[in-house]
Amino acid sequence: xxxxxxxxxxxxxxxxxxxxxxxxxxxxxxxxxxxxxxxxxxxxxxxxxxxxxxxxxxxxxxxxxxxxxxxxxxxxxxxxxxxxxxxxxxxxxxxxxxxxxxxxxxxxxxxxxxxxxxxxxxxxxxxxxx
Length: 130
Fold this sequence. Notes:
By secondary structure, this protein is mostly beta strands. It has strands at residues 3-7, 11-12, 18-25, 37-42, 49-54, 61-63, 71-76, 81-86, 95-101, 119-120, 124-128.
């Protein structure tokens, strides 16, 4: 069974930075390079929100307007890890952050659609507060 382990979430002050990591493990993890990957976030009581996604080979990516210019997605397929660099963090960025794997094809229209993704990590808590 394919699994994802997210890490890097913690308490940070407004204006600070964090880098989240998402590492694939288990069956199918060796094929991660062929798949589209996304980052989502969720606040209790609210729907899961798409943050960013990246195609296989890092050819294209897409980032939500709410974090554009502050967050950057990247991937290192050799280590089976996807990253989310988060700069200039704001209190409204507080959420549980999840990574997820979609299919092998790039679909810009589905980047922020949770239903498009098949495998999910357990999430890592990011809290932005002074």
